[in-house]
Design goal:
The structure is a single chain. With 129 residues, the protein is of the alpha/beta class. The protein has a 3-stranded parallel beta sheet with strand order 3-4-5. Strands 1-2 form a two-stranded antiparallel ribbon. Helix 2 links the parallel strand 3 and strand 4. The longest helix has 15 residues. The radius of gyration is 19 Å and the shape is extended. The two termini are 24 Å apart.
Amino acid sequence: GIKGYFVEKEKVVKNLNPPPPKVITLIREEKGTDVNIAVEIVKDSFVKNFDVIVLVSNDGDLARSLQVAKENGKKTIVISPVKKERMKHYSKSLKNIADFHFSHISKSILQKSILPNPVGKFFCPEGWK
């Protein structure tokens, strides 16, 4: 799979329960996953035989790799997984590049999209339905 890694660092943040007004906290930041996904999109668009790429992300850093896939004749679909109340916060750069863009998929649409269970030797685990 495509993986990144996490880095822990200290950060000064506003204290929600002062005093003191600020505190030092440890935060974890994910690093490298977007670059790794972008590299795979570009590589696959040159060497793999497929027609459509579906990217489930709201990370605008992936826009250029999606553009390269389009330049290589691939149809591009982007699903920006944002909550309904935050739909206006989707990545504009991904939307502008994608042939099709979805900023929210309702629960009813997801339920209508469920494949039969099982499909061949593959099945949907309990609790995912």
